[in-house]
Write a structure and sequence with these properties.
single chain, about 120 residues, alpha+beta, Alpha-Beta Plaits, four-stranded antiparallel sheet, 3 helices, globular, monooxygenase activity, Antibiotic biosynthesis monooxygenase
Length: about 120
């Protein structure tokens, strides 16, 4: 007799980590303002937001207005709680002013490989 594992509940204390991906198109000539705003935001989030583990900002090598921000959280719920907060909206406002369009993707980390 075989058994099928139940899907992992993402709303428990043992919830898997969350990975957030923002695909961003900047307004023309706003790279410097965007990077300055990101610099302010990343330190405040890293030091003050529960559940935040790390983030990266990446620029396309062929299109300087095309960007990606990824962040990792100890659970997707922690990110969603922060994203819904007034603090989040206030903090990212200077970045938002530089963005022409953006798309957000949210993932639950199911498997992870790290160096031995």
């Amino acid at each position: 007799m075989s058994t099928v594992a139940e899907p992992q509940d993402t709303h428990t204390r043992l919830a898997p980590k969350g990975r957030i991906v923002f695909l961003i198109r900047l307004k023309p000539r706003s790279v410097d303002r965007f990077l300055a705003a990101y610099e302010d935001v990343r330190h405040q989030v890293a030091e003050n937001v529960p559940g935040h583990l790390m983030d990266q900002v990446c620029q396309s090598p062929t299109d300087p207005d095309n960007w990606m921000i990824t962040s990792e959280w100890d659970s997707l719920d922690r990110f969603l709680d922060w994203e819904a907060s007034t603090e989040h909206r206030t903090l990212i406002k200077p970045m938002r002013e530089c963005i022409d369009r953006a798309h957000s993707l949210r993932f639950v980390v199911r498997e992870e490989t790290a160096p031995k």
